[in-house]
Amino acid sequence: MNIICAGDSHLHSVTTAYRELLESGDPGFSLTSFQTNDPPYAPITKIEHGKVIVNPQFDIDFRQALEGKQPSAVFLYRGGGEVAQTYTNGLRPFDFCWPGQDTGAVDTKREIVPFDLVFEYCCWQVSHMRESLQHVRSMTTLPVYQIALPPITPSEDYILGQANEARREELKKTGIAPPQFRSKIWKMLVLATHDLCAKERVSVIEPPLSTLDGSGYLLQQFWGDGIHANAQYGMIILDRIVEVARQHEPGDRR
Amino acid sequence: VTQHPYLNLPDYCYWRRSIADVGGTDVDPVVAGKFNITPHDRVATAGSCFAQHIARHLSKGGFNYFVTETANPVVPPYLAERFGYGLFSARYGNIYTSRQFIQLLHRAYGMFVPADDVWINDEGGFIDPFRPQIQPAGFASRYEYDADRCQHFAAVRRAVEECDVFVFTLGLTEGWVFRTDGAAYPLCPGVAGGRFDETLHQFLNLRPSNVVADMQEALRFIKSKNNKVRFILTVSPVPLIATAENRSVLVSTAYSKSVLRVACEELAMDDPDVAYFPSYEIITGSYNRGRYFAADLRSVTEEGVAHVMRLFMKHYAKQTEVPSPSLYDADNEEAARDRAAREQLKAIENVVAVMCDEERLDTHR
Questions:
Q1: Which of A117, A127, A185 is the best mutation test for B, with the most CBs of B within 10 A?
Q2: Is B73 an 8 Å CB contact of chain A?
Q3: Side-chain half-sphere exposure of A46, counting CA atoms within 13 A
Q4: Residues B81, A146: Cα–Cα separation, whole Å
Q5: Residue in B131, B125, B127, B130 with CA at minimum distance from that of residue B113
Q6: CA A147 to CA A3: how far, in whole Å?
Q7: Residue B54 in 3-state DSSP?
Q8: Does the ipTM exceed 0.85?
Q9: Nearest CB to B144: which of A50, A91, A114?
């Protein structure tokens, strides 16, 4: 079984997990990955003459992979910068209230931004993926899946400890946003991803519940560099990808 | 020749010399600004939809447009505008009547708490009766509604207390109020939220004495919080979209605008800190043969707004040129695309869109 997955920095956790599988024997499937945040596929989209153009090299290579590998489904693990952007408190720390949520979960010392506006903001944040989703969608009639971003790492100390010096200084300037806030924004971004994907006929694979603690944060065993999850998390995602891909395999190819 | 008072008057006192014989765009009924606005002066705005044009040009024309309720910096500008940020100094939406204006001031300082506090729309969104279109689908929860209004009132207070010049555009005399406490709505309940109930809601068409009293109180109130403030009053040239009086909307428009115009004169006549700026006359004056109105005979064209703002700059900022709109945008591709789209729209109809609550009155047929 052949699996094709294109994505940004979060894809590393999956490709690392795949490499580990290869090192320990035959995983029983092949993974062809397209790292869209690195050359030659970065930037994945750019504006030319007022139009958004998908990276031509990605277009050629991805088409070839679709034809040559004959996958049963296509997987994307795009996005991520939008979560990283909300890791700091920003110029004007804000919070928002989920409808029906206990208002005790709102930090009243922060500016309260209307829920709808935060949602629109998150939709805008994930909208950079639209053209690439549309492009992939136009290349194939196969089912397309977008993998949702991993949950957030709650520990401020851990995030600072993992950051390089430049990043650490940047994080210290306005301070790291509280985990409750980052988690709320993450949930909102997942919602916005669902919204975008539904419009483009792309399904979303949610983070497995087994990776979350009771507060909805990423369990410590899956922490990576403070923003990305580690290869152990990548392995769980890879298992899920394989499971979904198998569901789409024609009976005679199983 | 017999001596009489009209003999040695300046040209601007004569119709032929200053209006009929002068080219359309050169007509200048302002004559002289009552005071000068420096680039450092903080200029706050409020009022009807036409005031949005003034706000837009102030911010782009080198004035220190004072906005105290901005969207959080993470929110992109196009989204902020859709949610009513930056249209005026605070996110109060359109303030059409003098009654609304004075009540907003009182509410911001906790001196008036309307009984009709919140409306809930069919989707469960919480609507502010006093700025019903500011949040497109309503606020998502009562908590959020209260928190946002609290922030809003703080922003209103800051605009009042820290501005140097307050520009207020009077729009209408007609409005609807809550019977028990007289709370004035910008829009009739039921039009953009809420439910109309004639036992609760009452039509009010302000008389000249009402408008003068409301505005005197409003200006006095602002002065009491900020004694350095100066005021510029304008009257919106935009006709009523509908009248609740049983008569022609044309007649109601004439009444409404006449009352507002008279009130401005009353307010500005004896107070050196209150100026009247004749945007109403610039747009509606017969000299332009209706050219400053779009095909609907109601919306003001960009050309008309440019004429108004050119004279505003000339007489209050001592500038003679309003920067071209094309210079306003950030120099990036997205802005270039936006500009191209705007120019295309402009070619179709040279009208500038503003968020106008009133237009909801005429969407049923």
A1: A117
A2: yes
A3: 10
A4: 31
A5: B130
A6: 14
A7: helix
A8: no
A9: A114
Q: List the single residue in B72, B151, B333 with the smallest CB-CB distance to A50.
A: B333
DSSP calls for B249-296: HHHHHHHHHHHHHHHHHHHHHT-TTEEE--HHHHHH-GGGTTTTB-TT
Q: Does B133 touch chain A (CB under 8 A)?
A: no
Give the nearest partner residue to B144 out of A97, A120, A124, using CB atoms: A97
Question: Which residue of B128, B143, B152 to mutate against A (max A Cβ within 10 Å)?
Answer: B143
Strand B119-120, strand B126-127: pairing: antiparallel
Record the tokens describing residue B116, joined without a space: 């009709």
Give the max Cα distance, chain A.
61
Closest partner CB to A121 (pick from B79, B147, B336): B79
pLDDT tens for each residue of A91-120: 889 999 988 877 777 888 899 999 999 999
Q: Which of B67, B68, B74 should one mutate to test binding to chain A, selecting the residue with the greatest count of A CBs within 10 A?
A: B74
Q: Cβ B140–A115 below 8 Å, yes or no?
A: yes
| Residue in A100, A116, A121 closest to B135 by CB | A116
Whether residue A91 and residue B136 make contact (CB cut-off 8 A), yes or no, is: no
Tokens of B14: 């004569």
Inter-chain touch A121–B137, beta carbons under 8 Å: no
Provide mean pLDDT across the span B261-290. 96
Distance CA B172, CA B170 (A): 6
pLDDT for res B358: 65
Token code pair at residue A59: 């277009």
**pTM: predicted TM-score of the whole model, two decimal places:** 0.85
* CB–CB contacts below 8 A, A to B: 71
Residue A130 near residue A229, CB atoms below 8 Å: no
Q: Residue A86: what pLDDT?
A: 72
Tell me how far apart the alpha carbons of residues A106 and A1 are, in angstroms, rounded to a whole number.
47
Contacts of B194 (CB under 8 A, 6+ apart): B116, B119, B127, B129, B132
Is the CB of B135 less than 8 angstroms away from the CB of A90? no
Cα separations in angstroms, A159 against A172, A203, A243, B204: 11, 31, 32, 61
Q: Is the CB of B140 less than 8 angstroms away from the CB of A120?
A: no
Predicted confidence (pLDDT) per residue in B32-85, tens digit: 999 999 989 999 999 998 888 887 888 777 889 999 999 998 888 889 989 999
